[in-house]
């Protein structure tokens, strides 16, 4: 609590509901901020029981109570939540109880959506209509995993073909799309083993044809992109906001390529995923674009590279202008704050020192208005030029070991306003879940022995509705 109280910048929050086996609800609230040493901190500040019914009003009251208890209601930058309607209304209610003056751009950037959950929903949409296309492979895996004797036969056939059995067969789970990727990724390595077993086992009647194997390899390649990106930005030890934007742009361009695949099923999958992607693209690309602008390896150049490919020449200029205006508006807001803080400090010092040095009894400094004039003129000329000068400088080389926090820590003298801005923006997480849970569209459950990710729920909405029903 003392650490958060001394923190001068903004604090980003993530919150989620956990449900026990007894259908009791618990709210977890985690704070994310960059401390004075420029180290990203993620600290749980509340894990509390929330009595039923879990309505929008009950959840927003619980959230506000936590903010007031910790005295951080005036420091919040964003709140990242799952993509369910209850959370949307909870954020709306919370916004009404916070001062708009303390929020970034009056609260326009307050609501962040969990991008890991968004990707899970996009992939789920794509896999929904093609379940039957890999049914033979799924049945083959199920057959050879059914008994220890069949597993032994499978491993023996692999040894005869000099194929190392380093990975055991896995069967996919409906609510965990990465399990489908892992199933396909492992099974295609054993294609020759399945062919051998077909000759030796009369009861094995689920043998996939060559077209099934080709489709499996194609689907595995497609899902690998989502798998790698999801793992990348599910971390909590490093900034992920600036990493997500190029990843989501690459996904969008990949979907365009998939829609031209020679396989009808891949084209069908791409169509469903593009449709789901478009639902969320506009609500996540604003803050992500600001974060990528603050990455000295990319700045606005990456946006200028991707947007024409995503939007086409007709709409790219409009979208790039919208992002540019957002960056400048945010920089302007930070500049006003930085210069206001400096003016207060200078005013306090100057009035005290002059009265002490010269014995002035009059509390009014005749040059206070001059200080205000200088401050206002600086705000209108220097603040905007700082961002402009930063954007006009050459990009840094794209080194894989680049530490963006260390860079902004050492460049604060040159860009004091942008440094304050980077400290707040780069602390915002793009996901509310740990990497092992990022692939699921189920809900989080709490048991006496620990916590785990429930695989038999379709969406967090269903869990909350179930609790509201008693």
Q: Top keywords for this entry?
A:
470 residues; alpha/beta; seven-stranded mixed beta sheet; 57% helix; disordered C terminus
List the helices and strands and how they pair.
Elements: H1 2-6, E1 11-20, E2 25-34, E3 40-50, H2 56-69, E4 76-81, H3 85-96, E5 111-113, H4 115-128, H5 135-145, H6 148-160, H7 177-187, H8 191-200, H9 210-232, H10 241-258, H11 264-293, H12 301-311, H13 313-358, H14 368-392, H15 404-410, H16 416-425, E6 444-447, E7 450-453, H17 460-468
Parallel strand pairs: 1-4, 1-6, 4-5
Antiparallel strand pairs: 1-2, 2-3, 6-7
Protein architecture, described:
34% of the residues are buried. It contains 17 helices and seven strands. Residues 346-361 and 449-470 have low confidence and may be disordered. Strands 1, 2, 3, 4, 5, 6 and 7 form a seven-stranded mixed beta sheet that branches. Helix 6 (148-160) packs across helix 8 and helix 10 packs parallel to helix 12. The longest helix is centred in the C-terminal third of the chain and has 46 residues, at 313-358. It is an alpha/beta fold.
SSE pattern, N- to C-terminal: HEEEHEHEHHHHHHHHHHHHHEEH
Please tally the helical runs, counting DSSP H or I stretches of 4 or more residues: 17
Mean model confidence by pLDDT: 81
Number of strands: 7
Largest sheet: 7 strands, mixed
Distance between the termini: 35 Å
Brief characterization of the structure:
This protein is an alpha/beta fold and 470 residues long.
């Amino acid at each position: 609590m003392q650490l958060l109280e001394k923190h001068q910048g903004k604090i980003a929050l993530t919150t989620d509901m956990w449900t026990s086996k007894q259908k009791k609800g618990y709210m977890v609230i985690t704070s994310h901020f960059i401390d004075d040493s420029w180290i990203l901190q993620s600290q749980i500040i509340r894990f509390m029981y929330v009595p039923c019914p879990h309505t929008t009003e009950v959840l927003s009251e619980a959230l506000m109570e936590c903010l007031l208890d910790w005295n951080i209601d005036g420091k919040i930058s964003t709140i990242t939540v799952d993509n369910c309607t209850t959370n949307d209304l909870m954020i709306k209610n919370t916004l009404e109880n916070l001062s708009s003056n303390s929020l970034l751009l009056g609260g326009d950037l307050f609501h962040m959506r969990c991008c890991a959950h968004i990707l899970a929903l996009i992939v789920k949409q794509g896999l929904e209509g093609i379940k039957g296309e890999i049914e033979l492979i799924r049945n083959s895996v199920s057959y050879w995993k059914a008994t220890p004797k069949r597993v032994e036969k499978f491993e023996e056939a692999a040894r005869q073909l000099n194929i190392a059995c380093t990975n055991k067969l896995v069967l996919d789970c409906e609510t965990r799309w990465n399990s489908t990727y892992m199933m396909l990724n492992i099974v295609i390595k054993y294609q020759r083993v399945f062919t051998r077993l077909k000759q030796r086992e009369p009861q094995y009647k689920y043998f996939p044809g060559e077209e099934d194997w080709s489709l499996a390899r194609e689907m595995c390649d497609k899902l690998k992109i989502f798998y790698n990106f999801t793992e990348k930005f599910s971390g909590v030890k490093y900034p992920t906001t600036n990493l997500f934007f190029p990843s989501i742009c690459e996904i969008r361009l990949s979907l365009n390529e998939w829609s031209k695949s020679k396989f009808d099923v891949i084209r069908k999958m791409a169509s469903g995923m593009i449709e789901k992607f478009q639902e969320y693209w506009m609500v996540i690309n604003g803050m992500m674009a600001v974060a990528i602008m603050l990455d000295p390896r990319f700045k606005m150049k990456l946006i200028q590279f991707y947007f024409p490919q995503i939007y086409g020449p007709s709409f790219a200029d409009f979208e790039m202008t919208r992002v540019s205006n957002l960056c400048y508006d945010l920089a302007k807001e930070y500049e006003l704050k930085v210069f206001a803080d400096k003016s207060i400090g200078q005013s306090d010092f100057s009035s005290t020192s002059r009265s002490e040095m010269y014995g002035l009894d009059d509390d009014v400094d005749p040059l206070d208005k001059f200080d205000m004039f200088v401050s206002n003129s600086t705000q209108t000329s220097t603040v905007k030029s700082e961002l402009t000068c930063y954007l006009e400088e050459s990009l840094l080389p794209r080194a894989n070991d680049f530490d963006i926090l260390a860079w902004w820590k050492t460049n604060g003298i040159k860009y004091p306003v942008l440094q304050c801005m980077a400290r707040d923006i780069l602390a915002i997480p793009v996901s509310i879940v740990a990497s092992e849970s990022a692939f699921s569209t189920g809900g989080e459950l709490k048991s006496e022995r620990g916590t785990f990710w429930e695989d038999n729920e379709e969406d967090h909405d269903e869990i909350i509705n179930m609790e509201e029903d008693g």
